[in-house]
């Protein structure tokens, strides 16, 4: 069996609410009744059976883990291999990090975006930030997330062109062609 934490895309220290939310999101995405992959859904269900039960999770966590880094190398060639979370906004790197212009803020320490900053995520996946602000585990970041999303909305509104004034005239429904000739 694959590592259930990797299957559900959560951190080993993830809270039960985060694990349940990750399971539900992946189940919606991969459920065979909605065009998903049945094999992938079986993996997700088995992973949640382990991590969703406190006793089974404790037993799994007690087993020794082989040290390996599942993250791809920086020389990734395909889009699937190219994801790379930001460690911090101020860490110098040989390659530019995603969202360096707006990459400031608190670092997310759980879930699929472990190591990302709020500022970087606002450009990459704002829907995830909106979800995170509503969950118990993300409440400590709610004010920062709302501020970052507000800045993003203001920036996109400033880039939107102003609407053109309408040139249509008011048409009177009571006026007909026959009454205009009188």
Explain how this protein is built.
There is one protein chain. This protein has 182 residues and is mainly α. The protein folds into two domains: 4-62, Helix Hairpins; 80-160, no CATH class. Helices cover 45% and strands 0% of the residues. It has eight helices and no strands. The protein has helices at 4-8, 16-30, 38-51, 54-62, 118-124, 126-134, 142-159, 177-180. The longest helix is centred in the C-terminal third of the chain and has 18 residues, at 142-159. The relative contact order is 0.10. Residues 79-102 have low confidence and may be disordered.
Short description:
With 182 residues, the chain is mainly α. It has helices at 4-8, 16-30, 38-51, 54-62, 118-124, 126-134, 142-159, 177-180. The protein has eight helices and no strands.
Which key terms come to mind for this protein?
mainly alpha
Main beta-sheet annotation: none
Rg, Å, rounded = 25 Å
Tally of distinct domains: 2
Kindly state the percentage of residues in helix.
40-55%
Computed structural class:
mainly alpha
Question: Can you give the mean pLDDT?
Answer: 76
End-to-end Cα distance, whole Å, is 88 Å
| Annotation field: number of helices | 8
Percent of sequence in beta strands:
under 5%
Please write the string of helix (H) and strand (E) elements: HHHHHHHH
Spans of 5+ residues with little confidence (pLDDT < 50)? 79-102
Number of strands: 0
Choose one word for the global shape.
elongated
């Amino acid at each position: 069996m694959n590592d259930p934490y990797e299957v559900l895309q959560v951190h080993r220290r993830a809270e039960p609410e985060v694990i349940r939310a990750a399971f539900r999101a992946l189940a919606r995405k991969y459920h065979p009744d909605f065009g998903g992959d049945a094999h992938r859904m079986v993996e997700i269900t088995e992973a949640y059976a382990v991590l969703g039960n406190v006793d089974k999770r404790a037993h799994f966590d007690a087993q020794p883990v082989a040290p390996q880094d599942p993250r791809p190398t920086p020389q990734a060639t395909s889009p699937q291999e190219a994801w790379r979370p930001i460690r911090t906004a101020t860490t110098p790197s040989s390659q530019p990090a995603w969202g360096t212009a707006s990459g400031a803020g608190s670092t997310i320490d759980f879930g699929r975006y472990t190591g990302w900053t709020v500022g970087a995520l606002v450009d990459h996946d704002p829907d995830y930030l909106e979800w995170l602000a509503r969950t118990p585990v993300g409440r400590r970041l709610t004010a920062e997330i709302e501020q970052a999303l507000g800045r993003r909305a203001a920036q996109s509104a400033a880039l939107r062109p102003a609407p053109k004034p309408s040139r249509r005239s008011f048409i009177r429904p009571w006026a007909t062609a026959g009454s205009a000739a009188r």
